[in-house]
Structures are given as structure tokens and as C-alpha cells.
């Protein structure tokens, strides 16, 4: 399908420039798409590794909590952990990867310096609860990293899809339309030139016969 334009030399020149820009843009977008895919695949691999490790550690921590609950009872367990030793806030910034703003997440801990991670005394609690708290404390950085990587994967997947649509629009719609229109105008101009030449030859022949 060609564009609806007047078959003039000026239009032909304009379309050739547009085609040149479109071809260059297509190449740049295709390179960007390939690079995004490489980074996306690396992130997906990292995400899978992190998820397996985090789920394993959370499962272990949950088992320790269940053991502590069985020994101490629900009310004693809740009373032991109701007042945390510190509070944790989330600091989120961004970094740019191939025009995608991915999150950078960090914990900001607030509490007494060098304070114990256990918000209770040890006389009325069990070793299983200590182990559960310690496992959760140790896994928090990996859990945060997992959230960061998963969000980055989602954002990069969206950007890959947008880039793919733009690449396809150029490759299968705009560039073919421009090429077909350029071909049509070139043929029209050649046809007009031949017609003009034929008329000039007829005029010349008529003048010579007189």
C-alpha cells in the first residue's frame, strides 16, 4: 500500500530522505531491542536464582516459627515479638538501563546502634524462635533484591514490547510504504518524461515536414 502523495520530484526527494531516516531508525531500534533482550535474559536468570534461595530460607524460617509456636503457644509467641527492636524503612532510587528507569532499593534501619535483633528476653522464648528471627533478618537483603530484580524484569519486558512494536511498524508498514511510493513516483516521472519526449519528437517532425 503506497502513500497518497503527488508524484513530483520534490515529493520524491522528500520521501527518499524519510526512507533514509526510517531505515536508520529501524537499525537503531533493532540494536536496542537485541541489547534489551540480553539484559532481560540475564535479569530473569538472576531472578530465578534469587527466588529459589529466598523461598528455601523462608521455608526454613517458617518451620522454626511453627516449632516455636508449638512449644511456646500462640499468645506467648505474639507477646515476644510484638515490640520490634528496630524499624525498617525503604529507600528507593532509580538507575537508567537502555532508557528504562529500574529501581534501586535499600533498607534504612532505625533503632539503637548495635541493638540486638531479638526484641525479647531469652528466658521465656525458645531456640527455634531465635533461629527463625535470625533467618528472617539474614534473608531480608536478598528478599529486597528479589523485589528489585522482579520489578526491573517487568519494566524491561514492557520496554521490549514497546520497542518490538516500533520495530515492526517500521519494518512491515512504514518502510515498505515509502519504498512502494518512491517506486510509483519514479515510474510516473519516467512515464511523464517519455510522454514529453514523444510530444517533442512529434513537434520536431511536424516542423521538419513543413
Quick description:
A two-stranded antiparallel sheet has the order 1-2. The protein has one domain: Helix Hairpins, CATH 1.10.287.
Topology diagram in text:
Blueprint: H1 9-72, H2 74-81, E1 86-97, E2 100-111, H3 127-209
Antiparallel strand pairs: 1-2
Function: Produces ATP from ADP in the presence of a proton gradient across the membrane.
Family: Belongs to the V-ATPase D subunit family.
Protein name: V-type ATP synthase subunit D
Give the overall shape, derived from the CA principal axes. Answer: rod-shaped
- Would you tell me the overall average pLDDT? 88
Number of helical segments with 4 or more residues: 3
CATH architecture assignment: Orthogonal Bundle
| Number of structural units classed as domains | 1
Helix content: over 70%
CATH domain fold name: Helix Hairpins
The side-by-side strand order for the widest beta sheet comes to 1-2
Structural class: mainly alpha
CATH top level assignment: Mainly Alpha
What is the radius of gyration computed over CA atoms, rounded to a whole number of angstroms?
Answer: 35 Å
Keywords: ATP synthesis, Hydrogen ion transport, Ion transport, Transport
InterPro entries: V_ATPase_D (IPR002699)
Family: Belongs to the V-ATPase D subunit family.
GO molecular function: ATP binding; proton-transporting ATP synthase activity, rotational mechanism; proton-transporting ATPase activity, rotational mechanism
Amino acid at each position: 500500500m503506497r502513500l497518497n502523495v503527488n508524484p513530483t520530484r520534490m515529493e520524491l526527494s522528500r520521501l527518499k530522505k524519510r526512507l533514509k531516516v526510517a531505515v536508520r531508525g529501524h537499525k537503531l531500534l533493532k540494536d536496542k531491542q537485541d541489547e534489551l533482550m540480553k539484559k532481560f535474559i540475564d535479569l530473569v536468570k538472576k531472578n530465578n536464582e534469587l527466588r529459589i534461595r529466598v523461598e528455601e530460607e523462608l521455608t526454613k524460617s517458617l518451620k522454626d516459627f511453627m516449632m516455636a509456636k508449638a512449644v511456646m503457644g500462640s499468645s506467648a509467641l505474639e507477646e515476644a515479638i510484638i515490640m520490634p527492636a528496630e524499624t525498617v524503612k525503604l529507600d528507593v532510587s532509580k538507575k537508567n538501563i537502555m532508557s528504562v528507569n529500574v529501581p534501586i532499593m535499600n533498607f534504612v534501619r532505625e533503632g539503637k546502634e548495635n541493638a540486638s535483633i531479638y526484641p525479647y528476653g531469652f528466658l521465656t522464648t525458645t531456640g527455634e524462635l531465635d533461629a527463625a528471627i535470625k533467618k528472617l533478618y539474614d534473608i531480608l537483603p536478598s528478599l529486597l533484591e528479589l523485589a528489585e530484580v522482579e520489578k526491573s524484569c517487568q519494566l524491561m519486558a514492557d520496554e521490549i514490547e514497546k520497542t518490538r512494536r516500533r520495530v515492526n511498524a517500521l519494518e512491515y508498514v512504514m518502510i515498505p510504504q515509502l519504498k512502494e511510493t518512491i517506486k510509483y513516483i519514479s515510474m510516473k516521472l519516467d512515464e511523464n518524461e517519455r510522454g514529453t519526449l514523444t510530444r517533442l519528437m512529434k513537434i520536431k517532425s511536424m516542423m521538419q515536414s513543413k
